[in-house]
Each structure stands twice: as structure tokens, then as C-alpha cells.
């Protein structure tokens, strides 16, 4: 963690990214690792976003976030999901700013994926639907894996007890 700021600076950063990915995968293989990752999760996410903003290679930081979100997004990590709750709004706001600022289609898909794979239960994201709509539209027009993620997100929205949950977001306010 103390060398995270160096990730986007030197040639060895690819090795560091691979090591971090292996650590994240260990959470799936060894459930006890969840408790080890928990105290570092918030800092890892927020520092990655911060360092990416002034790095020569910001993609390395987003790659770390993608690997982290994919590794812990499987629905089994309640401790980590609770750790994510205070970060949701700030994280989605920042990812949407990045999404709106880029003209590169690959980056746009990456930021859309990060928005849709924030590692919490999808039902927790319902108050933040406005931050998910543009990423959802982009996801539904992207590569098959991202389309699948977008459809899963849309399915969760559709299954909510309040069928009008999407109306305030679409701007019409009507069923």
C-alpha cells in the first residue's frame, strides 16, 4: 500500500499490478483473506483514484480497481461490502466525471464497467440510480461481457418492489 503511488511511474508497475490481482484472487480462494483486506479497502480505492488523476499511466490504477471489483463482487464478502458503503456516492461521482470527460471508447467502457461492478449488493445501489444510467446505456452498447453486466443491473432494477423506481430517473416522473 505504501508504494501504490509509484504504480503509474515505472516499468515495474506491471508486476505490481499482477501481484495485486493475485492478492485479490486469494480472497475468493481463502475466505480468511477478506478480513485481511478489509482495513485496506477504502484507502486502496480512494488512493487509486487520486493517484490516477496525476499519473502518466492512470490505466494501471483503473486496472487495479477493475481486478479488485471483479474479485470481490461475487456476493460472498459482507465485511468488504459494508466497508464500501461510505464510498459509494464519492466513487460513483468520480467515475461518472471520468466517464463524461473521456472520448476514448475503451476508457468509456472501463469506467462504465467500474460503475456497474462497484462491489456491493446491487440493491444497495438503488439510491444512486442517477449515477448508473449513463454507464448502463454504455454497457448495453459494448462488448458482450459488459452487456451481460448491464442486463444484470437492469434486471435488479426491474425486480424492485416499487415498479416506478426508474421513473424519477428518466425525467418524466410518470409510469
TrEMBL record:
A single BP term in Gene Ontology: DNA repair
Pfam family, one: Tra1_central
Cellular component GO terms, alphabetical: NuA4 histone acetyltransferase complex; nucleus; SAGA complex
Classification via InterPro entries: DDR_Repair_Kinase, Tra1_central
Protein name: Uncharacterized protein
Organism: Puccinia graminis f. sp. tritici
